[in-house]
Amino acid sequence: MSLSSLLQRFNEPETLKMAKLGRELRAQGVDVIDLSLGEPDFDTPAHIKEAAVKAISDNWSHYTPVPGFPDLREAACTKLKRDNNLDYKPEHIVASTGAKQSLANAILALVDEGDEVIIPTPYWVTYSELVKIARGKVVEAHTTLESGFKITPAQLEAAITPKTKLFLFSSPCNPSGAVYSKEELTALAAVFEKYPGIYIISDEIYEYINFVGQHESIAQFPALKDRTVIINGLSKGFAMTGWRLGFTASTTEIAKAMEKIQGQMTSGTCSITQKAAVVALTTDLTPSKEMTAEFTRRRARVLELVKDIPGFKCYEPEGAFYIFPDISYYYGKTDGTITINNSADFSMYLLNTAHVSSVMGDAFGEPNCVRFSFANNLTNIERAWERIKTALAKLK
Ligand code: PMP
């Protein structure tokens, strides 16, 4: 059998691989605590579920327009004005089967073979792989724990070449939890203003899970708005990962390009989900705020718990629901059988010894770090970190 060369160009997501290994161990009867996955452990708010039930009863069961129902695109505009003070019209919005699909649409619409795409590390696993699918060239810009895992204007400028087509980042960031402030974005915007040919994809899917206050979008700078594609969706802020709804806000030209791609790939997303999304995007955000309040409590507890772990260097996340410590202190150490040489060894050691799943930093372009989610209840978080502490104490 001869499969396409496309399959050689990219990897499957490490996050999903780790979750799969955890599930396999669990199937053997092992009590695995999952700190690997990136989804809220909450139920979808009741008023959104009711809207979906009503959509089924009302027979919203047919194909939808490829970029989404008109009322959904309007709802996305309402949200962008309400939360971000950004003016968009429905023609600027393309709804999709999740932020991941929106990222794929945007990257395929913008990136040609050989185009350089600057991605600050650490970044969400899928970014680099989608760029490779589009035959673009990934240019990693390495940030440091000391800089709060944020790219500086000087670093950005140093990474730019005549081939740079796109800058791709998330704020709040998965995996580091970094949240760019208005001042930090202003400084980056000043660099972009000097290079009018560079587009920006701003992944804002964790917008509501923010521990420092106001979310800021890079699209707020008038000189950048027309070359920014905002990515957002329902997965994280409304605990709706399985419903599959993402959306983009961009110029009409880019929106039409993405619509063309989506028209051949998926025909758009589920009609029921779209009707529920209208309600999610335009009504009460109290459930999202309550969820973030719970993440805030867990974050505080996790930061206390990791203080007890020798050798961890940890940045305090400003958003999302992960901690991403540098664990390189453990390199070269052994429990007598297994030696830890990299973050993959470290993650596997924790899975097999502590029965806690995590994701190795290699997957995010930061090989010395490991990602631990706190999208799990406090009891499991306490149990997991106790086990991690015991397992790591065996490494000498
Ligand atoms: N962007 C980031 C940074 C993410 O972490 C994720 C989900 N893990 C996505 C996009 C994809 O979200 P969706 O479920 O909407 O496809």
From TrEMBL:
Cofactors, names only: pyridoxal 5'-phosphate
Q: Where are the transmembrane segments?
A: none
Question: Example GO molecular function term?
Answer: pyridoxal phosphate binding
Class of this enzyme: transferase
Q: Which UniProt keywords apply?
A: Aminotransferase, Pyridoxal phosphate, Transferase
- Identify the InterPro entries for this entry: Aminotransferase_I/II_large, AspAT/PAT-like, NHTrfase_class1_PyrdxlP-BS, PyrdxlP-dep_Trfase, PyrdxlP-dep_Trfase_major, PyrdxlP-dep_Trfase_small
Domain Aminotransferase class I/classII large: start-end pairs: 31-388
What superkingdom does the record give? Bacteria
Q: What is its EC number?
A: 2.6.1.-
Q: Which family does it belong to?
A: Belongs to the class-I pyridoxal-phosphate-dependent aminotransferase family.
Please give the name of this protein: Aminotransferase
- Source organism (scientific name): Filimonas effusa
